[in-house]
Design goal:
- This protein is mainly alpha-helical.
- Helices cover 78% and strands 0% of the residues.
- It is built from 19 helices and no strands.
- It has helices spanning 8-11, 22-40, 46-53, 57-60, 62-82, 87-107, 111-132, 136-139, 145-174, 176-197, 209-214, 219-239, 242-249, 257-279, 283-304, 308-322, 325-336, 341-369, 372-391.
- The longest helix has 30 residues, at 145-174.
- Residues 1-17 have low confidence and may be disordered.
- One of its GO terms (cellular component) is plasma membrane.
- One of its GO terms (molecular function) is transmembrane transporter activity.
- The chain crosses the membrane at residues 21-38, 58-82, 89-108, 120-141, 148-166, 178-201, 221-241, 261-280, 287-309, 315-334, 346-366, 372-393.
Length: 400
């Protein structure tokens, strides 16, 4: 691919980072933990927010939809707009925005102000994730990049396991405003950590629209984007309705759904780090096996998930497989576009977030118009198509 927009300084091989920069990797992981918690926390607080601000639960759902869609557009736009700005300054600025926007949510006098604050959250999520997702290559030695990427994306799993449930619990006991105030305080702590440990990160490239479009001429990037759309879309079309799936198909009492979803998150964290270790040896096979595992896990609910034990086991398998998706596909993008990591990552984050929203939307339509079982078939079919797309890259030397 072309690197015509690189400066001579950017064309040089980067220096091997010091081991001390691993603490910066963990600080960025704290940031991803915060981002996902901020994006998904309203799911558990819709009823209380809607009641307090006199809107329906459906309208309150905009608290989730709005930042997800805004993040999809912010991912490529923020790096383009800031040009050659030091990425350390950019990340600190976005975390400052996250701190202020969550405080604004907590203090919102009406729903319009609250939605406006969630727009700012979406900008912070998209911009931070776009830069952070490819940051491992800047912070650690090449051999450690998959492991560092797994650490950064470990924040995603940790948010699902700890951040969202604990935030919801706090909101239930003390009120939703205190829950968002606490999120703002956590953002401030993350901001201070980034200020202390994050080294200067001169922009490796000035991202222009032309450079973003050039990524689609890269076969590896194209396959990575297609696989991301299919897997994430299919997963959220099905997983959004995992609670009724467990109750109606597996016969599991509502009381046990929460603990099982906690188990899903734990399995996802394990899958994240297992995939990180495997990716350091073989990228193509690791990502392919992840897709194949999803092909098996979701449709199998219809055959083996008819009992509580079967449903619980398959949910854990599903979580283990999906845990490797983010780190696997991000590593795929890094390997496919080593000279344009930030540009490729920006596109990847954009389609990832957009696929979350579209998957949940289409899944809802299918559940309302067809059957609950249909979303599991859709999830499995999308994973199968993704596996076939990944298989076409089997001869790509960059992914061996």
């Amino acid at each position: 691919m072309t690197t015509a927009e690189q400066t001579p300084a950017q064309a040089k091989e980067p220096e091997v980072p010091e081991k001390s920069r691993w603490i910066a990797v963990w600080a960025v992981a704290l940031g991803t933990f915060l981002l996902v918690t901020a994006e998904q926390l309203p799911i558990g607080l819709l009823t209380s927010v809607g009641s307090a601000l006199s809107v329906s639960e459906g309208t309150a759902g905009l608290m989730v939809t709005v930042p997800s869609i805004v993040a999809a557009f912010a991912a490529p736009l923020v790096p383009m707009l800031v040009g050659a700005m030091d990425r350390r300054i950019l990340l600190i600025g976005l975390m400052t925005l996250m701190t202020v926007s969550n405080l604004a949510t907590a203090l919102a006098p009406n729903f319009s102000v609250l939605v406006a604050s969630r727009v700012l959250v979406g900008i912070a999520i998209g911009g931070f994730w776009a830069v952070a997702s490819g940051l491992a290559v800047r912070l650690v030695a090449p051999a450690d990049v998959p492991r560092a990427t797994a650490v950064i994306f470990g924040g995603v799993g940790a948010a699902n396991v700890f951040g969202v449930p604990l935030g919801t619990l706090l909101g239930d006991f003390t009120g939703w405003r205190l829950a968002f105030s606490s999120l703002s305080a956590l953002a401030l702590i993350t901001l201070i950590a980034l200020l202390v440990v994050l080294p200067g990160l001169t922009a490796s490239q000035v991202i222009r629209p032309k450079l973003l479009m050039e990524q689609f001429r890269n076969p590896g990037v194209r396959v990575g984007i297609i696989a991301t759309v299919l897997i994430v879309f299919g997963h959220f079309a099905a997983y959004t309705f995992v609670s009724p799936v467990l109750q109606k198909l597996s016969g599991i009492d509502e009381r046990y759904v929460g603990p099982l979803l906690f188990g899903f998150g734990v399995a996802g964290m394990i899958g994240n780090f297992v995939a990180g270790a495997a990716l350091s040896r073989q990228v193509y096979r690791s990502v392919l096996y992840t897709a194949v595992a999803l092909v098996i896990a979701m449709p199998l609910f219809l055959l083996l998930g008819q009992t509580a034990i079967g449903g619980g086991i398959l949910l854990a398998v599903w979580g283990l497989a999906y845990g490797g998706v983010s780190v696997g596909l991000q590593t795929w993008m890094i390997k496919s576009a080593p000279q344009a990591v930030e540009a490729a990552s920006s596109l990847w984050v954009a389609v990832f977030n957009l696929s979350i929203g579209l998957g949940a939307l289409v899944g809802g339509v299918i559940v309302d118009t067809l059957t609950l079982q249909s979303v599991l078939w859709l999830g499995g079919a999308c994973a199968l198509l993704a596996a076939l797309a990944i298989w076409t890259a089997r001869k790509n030397p960059a992914l061996r």
